[in-house]
Amino acid sequence: MIIEEVLGPQFVTASPGDVSRYLEAPVNVKTSSHSPGVPRAPVPLLLVTTPGVDALQDVMLLASRKPDVTVTNVSLGQGQSGVAEAAVGASTREGRWVVLQNLHHALDWLPTLANIITRLYSSNARSLTSTDTTVLNHNFRLILTSEPTDEFPVSLLRGVEKVYVDSPGDAHHALQEAIAIVTRHASHLQFEVEEDEEEAATYRLLHGLGIFHTIVSERGRHGHLAWASPPTFTTVDLALAVSVVTSSAEEGQQVDPETLEYLVGQVFYGGRVRRTEDQQVIASILKDVLAISLKIPEEEEYPISEEVGGAQDPWHADAGHAGADDTDEVGLALLFPDYIEKLEDLQDFVKGVTEFERPEIFGLPVGVQHLQEVESGQHFLMALAAVGGAQTLQGSAETSVAKQLYKLKKMVIYLTYK
Fold first, then answer.
1. Distance CA 306, CA 317 (A)
2. Of 359, 334, 362, 363, the residue nearest 349 (C-alpha)
3. In what order do the strands lie in the sheet containing 45-49?
4. Cα separation of 70 and 278, whole Å?
5. Distance CA 351, CA 222 (A)
6. Contacts of 86 (CB under 8 A, 6+ apart)
């Protein structure tokens, strides 16, 4: 709250990143004030990612929608540097896109890559004012991915456009990202006027997949009780699930619920877990989500949610828009408002969500949030105590830590209730 009040909401509300603007069109460079601009390939794009984040999804989606674009993908590792150099050399002439993944696995080769980039783009700039026939094809794109490392050559960093792709900071931002991915992958769908029901059913199901991805991805934030062996889900899993629905819609067919449940629960997401109990959690959450998305009656196999009377809708600032009444539901049902019938309704829903942290949404008991807050508070106080001079919990330093914690607790209580 302090950061938002002092610096502004843009520092606490990050919009989902879009790397396509770095790749969409060539850069027009004027060789003189009287000559028209000459198209030139944009500088290479370096996507720095955290583990478990897929940074190439937007790149590959953009390339797939351009029939004249061919992508060469090289995953760097032992013995792949020569393959990468050959791919770059051929693509600069033919105007292809080259993706070099995992630069952090080829740190010894990065100075060579920096020299290649410097040579290509410096010679291209000189060629704009000469008759040299080796001008870099303006359709060429070079996309690099890497996890953070301190061993990047400075010359490489200076010659590329750098974009840091991080995992969402909280569940609400994760929901924003999931809905943005669904929107990008479903934006090409078209329905006839008489297909209103099919259109609404499709977007309700896509909305449900975005909710499901957010729940299973963010469930781990509620501490060690969330998973037996914490899995790592990526946006690729969501993209694959969305493709099942969009493919059926393009063919004019309805999605088979059993097929979708098997692919999403057993293959795309279930394939990433190692423990049987975690597989059961995924299957249970998915079954509830599909039951609400497909509007399966309560008396059938899928349970929807429990109800409590007299509660106010805590999820949307405009509860009336979400269809709330005197008997509001808690749990998943609140995330499935009745007004979702078109693609733009998904973005409207995200804008209206005001809270997305309650453990019931993630299939966890209410008390787990208190345990998580206590655990996080202890870690925070221990860190502050260490800064104050306590180095370890062993021996004589234990007394120092205890004193520091006591002082910090008194300070926090004073600031809270003064």
1. 22
2. 334
3. 71-75, 97-101, 141-146, 45-49, 161-165
4. 39
5. 24
6. none
Q: What single DSSP character describes residue 304?
A: -
**Do residues 326 and 309 lie in contact, with contact meaning Cβ atoms separated by under 8 Å?**
yes
Residue 226 has what DSSP assignment? Answer: S
DSSP three-state, residue 312: coil
- We find that the CATH architecture of domain 171-362 is Orthogonal Bundle (1.10)
Look up the CATH superfamily of 2-165: P-loop containing nucleotide triphosphate hydrolases (3.40.50.300)
Q: What is the pTM of this model?
A: 0.65
Over the chain (418 residues), the average pLDDT of each successive run of 10 is 63 59 60 52 84 74 82 88 92 89 90 90 55 65 89 88 79 86 89 85 94 90 77 88 93 90 94 90 92 73 40 39 40 83 88 73 73 72 68 51 59 52
Question: Nearest CA to 222 among 365, 379, 329?
Answer: 365
Domains of the chain by residue range: 2-165, 171-362, 368-417
* Closest to 162 (Cα-Cα) out of 54, 19, 29, 62: 19
Question: What is d(CA 109, CA 82) in angstroms, rounded to the nearest whole number?
Answer: 10
